[in-house]
Every structure is written in C-alpha cells, then in structure tokens.
Design brief:
2-enoyl-CoA Hydratase, Chain A, domain 1; 4-stranded antiparallel beta sheet; alpha/beta; 6-stranded mixed beta sheet; Pdz3 Domain; 2 domains; about 350 residues
C-alpha cells in the first residue's frame, strides 16, 4: 500500500504521513502484504476519537516508522482561494468532489470582486476524484463547446466531454501548478487547459493515471471494478504513464538536510497499463538512491511550502504573471513607437 498523497488536513497528514510512504502494518496485527486493499482500509477506519497505529517504511529511513493517528470525520474543503499579491488570484484544489465546481465558481466570483488580472490554479498533490467534477471545473476556464477530454475503450468507441458553459474569466492569464502527486482528474484539467492554450502549466511531470474504472453491481450486493477505458486530452494525448509535461519545469527547492523518496508515478507500479501512443514512456525512471547523494539530487513528492517565499514553483508562477503584465502594458507603447517610425 503506497501513499500517493495524503489529503490535506486529514489525520494522516497531521500525523506526518508523506507521499511515497509504504504502509506495512495496521495496528501491529494486519500485514498489508497479506490482505486486500479494502480489508486494510476497513481496518484503518473506525469511530471518531479512537486511535489506529500505522507502521510505515520510508525511503532513506533505515527502520520502519510508527505513526499514531486519531480517527476523525473527514470534512474536506476542496477549494481554497486568496489574493496573493495585488491583482494575482490563487485557487488551490485539493480534490475533485461533487461540490468542487460549485465552490470553485464562488471562489472565482470572490476573486473577481478583488479585481484580479491573473490567476494561479494549484493542483499539486491533488490525487483526482470524479470525472464529472473535472469536466465542470475545466469548463469554467474554456469557451462553451470546446472538448475537455474523451475516453476510449478497447472497442475504439469514443465518448467526448464538452464544455457547456462559457468561461467567466475570459482572457485573463492562468498558470496551473502541478507535480508528481497531481493525478487523474488533475491531469484532465491541466491537459485540457494546456492543449487549448488557455493556461501555462508549471511544475514537474504529473503522476500519469489515465485509466477509467467502472463499478458493476452484482446480484449478491457486491460489485466488480473494471478498468474499461483510457483518458485522452483534446489533442489526443494519452495520460496513461506519461502524465502531463509542464510547459516550464520547476523543481521544488528542498533543504539539504531533508531526505526525500524517489519519484513514484503510475509507470512505477506493478501491472500498470501501457500507453499505446508512447511505448517508450513505459520505462520506470525511479531514482536509484546513493547514500552519498545530496538531497538536491533527489526529487521527491513533497507538500508545497506554507511560505510562498520558500515555494519555488509558486514564486515562478508569480514572476511569470508579473512579466506578462509588464509586457502587456508595454505593448501599446511599442506599437505607437513603430507607427511613428
């Protein structure tokens, strides 16, 4: 059981569980290698206020770590927004839930009241969620009728999802932040905005989860979950294994004393589906860690720093938007000078 990204604000994150952690045991009784995923998850769940002990293996740490989590009711605020600097709005999506698009619309309205002229959409460490939510989020940045994503199964049948509402933000520049923990629905959103030239994607290559799961109810009350199709961006790129490549690659700046796990993506997992459009992308690129390696040579999945001054990816986005604003303001003056000449 590998942690892709702990959900922000949950007991796991508060206890210190990190992306890339391998859960070995639950309560010193359940060995996860000897049980199914759902059985292990059920063991971790329980009454609010009770405790559960997780034994975790973490790269660069020689001995297993033990975490005591206090169970709680999980209420996830999937949309967070604020004004970073005058004119620059910031929206962070932590998951794609039923209400995410509605909450996003409210956040955009609030930022417009603050007269923003540019926006940063932060999808880092967002593991995904509902396909419908991804479509509803994306159409708030695209014109009506534009293709957002299509899925295609083994039979070649293609189902398309189009934007049905016009963007409220129109022409303002948008930068989307992504990293190795951005998966599934996050990749659908960033891929669509990138393909249509509606946003610049900044950060590191995303996770690469481009498969569609369908749950089929059975007569005895159980269900069968099948992988039935793959996601494709508007330009026909398969997300599976490859993920979304940023327009501008910006790696996080990490303190040298911090030891980080290697990058873990879809293609590093056992029995993953291949990308039929990019067979070369199937080769794992996990980092072979050398004990003598400095931490700035090791790229891991990490939570973005709380201080924007220490967040290299966020700071790069701010600098790009400021530069865009400067050149836009200069454009009329440059045009006037050319006319005079």
């Amino acid at each position: 059981m590998v942690v892709i990204a702990p959900i922000e604000g949950t007991p796991a994150e508060l206890a210190g569980v990190k992306p890339g952690d391998i859960i070995l045991k639950v309560d010193d009784q359940v060995l996860t290698k000897d049980t199914s995923l759902m059985d292990a998850v059920n063991k971790m769940r329980g009454e609010k206020g009770t405790k559960v002990i997780l034994t975790i293996q973490r790269d660069q740490v020689p001995n297993p770590l033990v975490f005591e989590l206090v169970r709680d009711i999980i209420r996830i605020q999937s949309v967070k927004s604020k004004v970073l600097e005058p004119g620059i709005g910031y929206i962070r999506l932590t998951q794609f839930q039923e209400q995410t698009a509605r909450d996003l619309s409210k956040a955009i309205s609030g930022l417009r009241e603050n007269n923003i002229h540019s926006l940063i959409l932060d999808l880092r460490n967002n593991p995904g969620g509902l396909l419908t939510s991804a479509v509803e989020v994306t159409e708030q940045f695209l014109e009506s009728g534009k293709l957002i994503v299509f899925i295609k199964g083994r039979d070649g049948k293609r189902d398309e999802y189009l934007a049905s509402n016009s963007s409220a933000l129109k022409e303002i520049p948008i930068i989307v932040l992504v990293n190795e923990g951005s998966a599934s629905a996050s990749e659908i959103v960033s891929g669509a905005l990138q393909d249509w030239g509606r946003a610049m994607v900044v950060g590191t290559q995303t996770f690469g989860k481009g498969s569609v799961q369908t749950i089929l109810p059975l007569s005895d009350g159980s269900a069968l979950r099948l992988t039935t199709a793959k996601y494709y961006t508007p330009k026909g790129r398969s997300i599976q294994n490859t993920g979304i490549d940023p327009d501008i690659v910006v790696k996080p700046i990490l303190p040298k004393e911090v030891k980080n796990a290697p990058i873990l993506r879809e293609k590093d997992l056992d029995r993953h589906l291949k990308n039929e459009l990019r067979p070369d992308a199937d080769k794992p690129d996990k980092v072979d860690l050398d004990p003598q390696s400095s931490s700035d040579e090791i790229i891991g999945i990490n939570e973005p720093p709380q201080d924007k001054e220490e967040d290299a990816q966020l700071q790069k986005a701010i600098d790009l938007l400021k530069s865009w604003r400067i050149f836009k303001d200069l454009s009329p003056k440059l045009t006037a000078q050319q006319s005079i000449r």
